[in-house]
Specification:
206 residues; mainly alpha; 3-stranded antiparallel sheet; 3 strands; 48% helix; 9% strand; globular
């Protein structure tokens, strides 16, 4: 049974780990939130959002994009953003009492649906296994953000010379994994799969 879920578990957990580590690095290097902290205190500051006096952050004074980094000038920057909504900030203006339960429910339903699809895969659907594992890992990464803070940390900023309408919404590693997974699912739907050949006890190939 574990062998059947090996790709889902390993790829999903690796994606989750990569997502959370890069978000920690974004907070550490693109904001002042962890300045003055050392050792494990930096990790707790990232997870809990408590400041050095163990008080919740003051709105607009804790995690701000104070140190954006221009990786490729005019095209690719790293910039800290807090997204309380879905992609493109959808539903971000909902009251917090509604927004948090809504996104928690959506995440759990999505993960349950991925698990349901995964157990129904046939042995020849290897590409779909990787696709669902990437989507699951990405969904978990953003779900962890919402559980801990009520918003998702984004930091990858792609744009074209700052032209109006030529900026892709800021995203993160979890979003990228979901996009790659969905792309693999679309690719698989267009490619013809060869049925797996099995040999009967009498030596006949079916």
């Amino acid at each position: 049974m574990m062998h059947r879920f090996r790709v889902l578990i390993l790829v999903g957990l690796a994606t989750l780990a990569a997502d959370q580590v890069t978000k920690y690095l974004a907070v550490a290097h693109l904001t002042e939130a962890l300045d003055g902290r050392t050792g494990f205190s930096r990790v707790t500051g990232f997870v809990s959002e408590q400041n050095l006096d163990n008080h919740p952050p003051v709105e607009g004074q804790y995690r701000r994009s104070t140190r954006p980094y221009r990786f490729i000038e005019n095209y690719w920057h790293f910039r800290y953003v807090e997204n309380p909504g879905a992609a493109w900030g959808l539903f971000g203006n909902l009251p917090e009492s509604v927004r948090r339960p809504f996104f928690h429910l959506v995440s759990l339903v999505a993960l349950g649906f991925i698990g349901f699809m995964y157990v129904r895969l046939t042995p020849d659907q290897r590409r779909v296994r990787w696709a669902l594992a990437l989507v699951a890992g990405g969904a978990l990464g953003n779900f962890v953000d919402r559980l801990l803070r009520g918003y998702v940390i984004d930091f990858i900023d792609w744009h074209w010379r700052n032209q109006p309408g030529m900026r892709w919404p800021t995203f993160n590693v979890a979003d990228a994994a979901i996009c790659v997974g969905v792309g693999l699912l679309l690719l698989d739907s267009f490619l013809e799969r060869k049925p797996v050949e099995t040999v009967t006890p009498g030596g006949q190939v079916v």
